[in-house]
Design brief:
The chain is an all-alpha fold. It contains 9 helices and no strands. It is flat, with a radius of gyration of 22 Å. The protein starts with 5 loop residues before the first helix and ends in a 21-residue tail after the last helix.
């Protein structure tokens, strides 16, 4: 079967899901892939899918939902999560082409309320790549100094601005490392949570309980001072993490 072009894929995706995606790599958040499946089966737990995900650990959580659906529907297709969440065009193009072929073969032609199924979640394209100059613009705005490193009316370079820009670059690199480490451990905790949930549901269906599983869930969902959910914040009963 001939591969579908990028422009045709985006047009199909935006029409089916009522989205405004402009790049294939924006599918790397996982939300659109999940909703393509939901348009076929109509029973995907969309409350657990973050359509406006901004962080890699949220992308991973979306793909875990999708992975569970693949398992439940016996879809024999590996999901290269580690590649897709990096939001690279080629990886997501290949996977979206497969998803389109799968949809063509399995969609029954029934109507699909995409906006209603995602409970009106924003359809704005996810910003998967942060602008590089944001930090510099912010620093300039705060200090009242042009980005060029020269004060207005002066020909001498602004050494303080140059030092600040160097510090910002170092902090950005350090933050990137911390985010990767956070995402790594979050993914492991998420895998444990899903495994515990599945085992707990299996036991409940059998009329049994496991105290050890309850203790594990207690640890997973415990909070510390400063990390509690605000009392007046809306809580989705079906959503985890």
């Amino acid at each position: 079967m001939m591969a579908v072009s990028r422009s045709d894929l985006l047009a199909w995706l935006n029409e089916l899901l009522q989205l405004n995606y402009t790049k294939i790599e924006q599918c790397g958040t996982g939300g659109a892939y999940c909703q393509i499946l939901d348009s076929i089966y109509g029973d995907l737990p969309m409350a657990r899918v973050k359509m406006n995900a901004k962080h890699e650990y949220e992308f991973v959580a979306n793909f875990k939902v999708m992975q569970n659906v693949f398992k439940a529907k016996k879809i024999d297709k590996p999901i290269p999560i580690e590649k897709l969440v990096k939001c690279k065009m080629q990886d997501n193009l290949e996977f979206l082409q497969w998803m389109k072929r799968f949809w063509d073969s399995n969609y029954g032609g029934q109507g699909y309320d995409a906006v209603g199924r995602r409970r009106g979640a924003p359809a704005e394209p996810p910003a998967t790549i942060a602008p590089l100059s944001t930090g510099a613009r912010s620093a300039s705005a705060v200090l009242g100094t042009p980005i060029s490193g020269h004060r207005a009316g002066s020909t001498q370079p602004n050494e303080a601005m140059q030092a600040l820009q160097t510090q910002l670059r170092e902090m950005s690199t350090h933050m990137e490392g911390l985010e990767k480490e956070r995402d790594f451990y979050f993914a492991k905790l998420r895998d444990i949570e899903i495994l515990v949930q599945q085992q707990t549901e299996t036991l409940e269906n059998q009329g049994k309980e496991d105290d050890n599983l309850k203790e594990i869930q207690k640890i997973l969902y415990s909070t510390e001072d400063g990390f509690e959910v605000p009392e007046n914040a809306p809580v989705d009963e079906e959503e985890t993490f």
